[in-house]
Amino acid sequence: MSKKRNQPVRGLKGIVAADTAITFVDGQNGKLYHRGYELDELASKVCFEEMVYLLWFGTLPTASQLEDFRSELVAEMRLPNQVWDIIKLAPPNANPMVLLRTVVSALGMFDPDGGKNTEAANIRKARRILAQVATVVAHMNRPKDEPIRSADGRMGFAENFLYLFNGKIPRKLDQDVVNTTLVLHADHGLAASTFAARVTVSTLAGMHSAIAAALASLKGPLHGGANRAVMEMLEEINEPRKVKAYIKGMLQTGQKIMGFGHRVYQTEDPRSKHLRGYSQKLSKKAGTSHLFEISQKIEQEVLEQKGIRPNVDFYSATVQSALGIPKELFTCIFALARTAGWTAHVMEQFNDNRLIRPTSNYTGGFDLKYVPINQR
What we know:
By secondary structure, this protein is mainly alpha-helical. It has helices at 48-57, 63-75, 81-89, 96-110, 119-139, 157-166, 172-185, 192-201, 207-218, 226-237, 243-252, 272-286, 289-306, 312-322, 330-351, and strands at 23-26, 31-34, 37-38. The mean pLDDT is 92.
């Protein structure tokens, strides 16, 4: 018995799954727009709080709105004692993204707006989740027996994150770099993790469930885990003179070179150029200029051999490494930034919700007959 089948679109490439006013990824021209602003109009010009405000509310804040919004975010950079216990009880070898996903899920049990999905409640939940994710990620870099630090209301979001992360007031350059890094990663349309968040919340499961689903998706090496893979590649090569042979070997064996290519962009990822300059500057200060040189040679080789340019993950690796961020936490930094976009998409989904339920082609058999177990 045959059934009519539609031709599936593998990976849903080119399928329009939602209307959104948040972000437009112009893959053909290599441009990225957030709420109508091209990325170059925002990167290195706005602080992360401004970007979050723009994604959530659709406009850039005034000076007074920014001050209030920043104060509200920083005030939420605290966790319930029971959640601190979960973090402390995690095994030493726990994957940081698994821990972060678990903690976000647990935070849903303690959120005072946990069962509410009104617009006001979702804004409050989004604010708490973003601030709490920053606190969790920052303390992953601190010994578990060290006293818990509190955010300083006199500092901004990125500065507070670095303060909690390193236990000291950050340099202005480091603060600027983290700000820009968070801005560049804040949203990127219907990436896999964002789609996972929208699918989850379309069931009315709630914001914490949606962000937990997004974190589970981001953990994969084909999405958020790519920047760590880039760093491991750079460490394995170790010397600029080895780049040509290394890349040639990977291409000959059909291996994927992490940090290159993109499912949407047909030209350069517009985010990568902003990180390239920071990579050069920070690597020089950190005494790891050889890593930047290796990166440049890899970029040149891959472009010449395959015509593919780096994506945001490629130079993100050396930037974070030069900031003293362990490679195990690279994806968590990505998650912190993207929480801004995830929560924006969750709120947009709530505003005009319909259960997301695609169809599939069945490739199994038909009309089989049951056979009693003693006859099989």
